[in-house]
Design brief:
Blueprint lengths: L8 H13 L3 E4 L3 E4 L4 H26 L5 H20 L2 H17 L4 H8 L2 H10 L8 H16 L3 H4 L18 H9 L6
Antiparallel strand pairs: 1-2
Length: 197
């Protein structure tokens, strides 16, 4: 792998360890690295944790700003949703997944809680991996529409279950089989700080 991608073995190993820490790959002794498999349990656990962090962020925003949220809170979120719509319209799925992450990040950051923001950002790579797997199930434009509804509902229902029902993830039966990892290409680019997988 190092030879194929003109990278040192140390760089490839470090990159794979970084991806493993982000739960994007699994590393097995004598077997190598593979893209992490997201089964029902893994998807459910990921969504539970993200949902809990986002629900607490929504609660804090509403406690501080009231309901509906003021324009100072909603405008950055609506701007992020517009960028998501543009990314979807472009047909660039990588840009779409990044714009999707930005919508959630903007909402969480509006809570002004560094700990919640940090914990939430640590899930971003796994969410990107999830979205890579479920790409066929999202018609163009649907993510932006869902998030517009989400923004309206969290202001009406707060952090309760009604506001978060749209976050329910697809089961593993809706996911594509995980691709075999071209580990060096993925890991070296990621470790070097270029495009995330």
């Amino acid at each position: 792998m190092a030879t194929r991608h003109h990278a040192s073995r140390h760089t490839v190993r470090a990159a794979l360890q970084t991806l493993a820490a982000e739960r994007l790959v699994t590393i097995a002794p004598y077997r190598g690295a593979r893209v992490a498999h997201l089964d029902d349990a893994a998807v459910g656990a990921l969504q539970e944790l993200r949902g809990a962090l986002e629900a607490e962020a929504v609660r804090q925003i509403t406690e501080r700003s009231g309901s509906p949220w003021p324009d100072a809170v909603t405008h950055p979120v609506r701007d992020a949703i517009c960028r998501l719509a543009l990314a979807e319209a472009s047909g660039d799925w990588l840009a779409t997944t990044r714009a999707h992450a930005e919508v959630h990040r903007v909402i969480v950051e509006a809570a002004a809680s560094p700990r919640i923001s940090q914990a939430h950002s640590q899930l971003e790579s796994e969410i990107l991996l999830l979205l890579t797997h479920i790409r066929p199930d999202y018609p163009a434009g649907s993510l932006a529409r869902e998030h517009t509804v989400y923004l309206d509902e969290v202001q009406r229902f707060g952090d309760g279950p009604c506001a978060l029902t749209w976050l329910t993830p697809p089961t593993s039966s809706a996911l594509r089989a995980p691709p075999r990892l071209d580990a060096a290409a993925l890991a070296v680019r990621h470790h070097a700080g270029s495009a995330a997988p």
